[in-house]
Design brief:
This protein is an alpha/beta fold. It is built from 7 helices and 12 strands. The strands form 2 sheets. Strands 1-2-3-7-8-9-10-11-12 form a 9-stranded mixed sheet. Strand 9, helix 6 and strand 10 form a beta-alpha-beta unit. It is globular and about 45 Å long.
Length: 366
Amino acid sequence: MWTTSRDPSAIFTPRARVRALALAALLGGCSGAGDESSSTDDGTGSTSGSTSEGTAGSTAGGTDGSSDATTSATTDGSSDATTDGSSDATTDGSDATTDPTATDTGEDTLDPDVDPLPDGDWYHPNLNTSWQWQLLIPDGEVSVNTSYDVDLYDIDLFDNSAAFIAGLKAEGRVVICYFSGGSYEEWRDDADDFEPATLGDDLDGWDGERWLDIRAPSVLAIMRARLDEAVARGCDGVEPDNMDGYTNDTGFPLTAADQLAYNKWMANEAHSRGLAVGLKNDGGQAEELVAFFDFSLNEECHAYDECGDLSPFTSAGKPILNAEYADSLVDAEAAAGEICPEALAADLRTLILPLDLDDSFRVSCD
């Protein structure tokens, strides 16, 4: 899942369902500015967590952070990027309100008052970091589009091989690897490792995806393994998605303190492995979390008037990588006329992208 509504009056509707309304408001009177891409959209529309694909399609990322007219979406045919097979793991909805952390002790105890780890030599992006975000590889393509001249690629952890990541890094790119930190995705390689009691309500609008009980020691163990996998594949950092479950209907009584403790835990675990880590959405806790995270990755802060919530990051010299969604290149170019001046004034690194994050089009405000 990419994004969920944080409007308390909404019944936890995915933000993707209502983005058209926000975009329509932005389009009025906008002038176009954008880029072109020859890559085609496979139309699957599947994704997850701050972005995950619902059908195990491979993912990829390439971006041009220096221009709002970007290069055509060519792909590197030599890549051995792999795709993960879908899992037939099934889950039941048993005991969704049970608190599995009642006897949690030791290193698995989540503490909302924990301190951040001392600063280390992991990757530290700056306010001018250019980026590309591609999590799906369209049918007919073999890898992410590597043609963008940007600093940072954000791509899927499971769907890109160590060899492909090494190739990106050899070209001078920083590689951030996406995985869902707050949801279960039934097609992932490690889906069978999740205990049924830790699986909560479905993520509305995202087939095969369910919220996790982030307090459960078994969930923490799986996330540690995912971070280890990121190290093994050579990722420079990670983007854990769905890190704001406490604002959604998860099926568990998660509190703001639970989320704060989990997000701090995730950041410290990543840093202990030498990985940079981005805070996905969760602008309501940005002030408490900015010392733990190296950058913010947000979805549609312009459309939802939430960019100001993330200002603790820019104040700390840490970038806000923001994505706004559009249905077509034409819509993206029109929206750029209003969005981009606001983004540049706020020192945000904003892209206007397809919801599928498949590189079918891309408009950069830089």
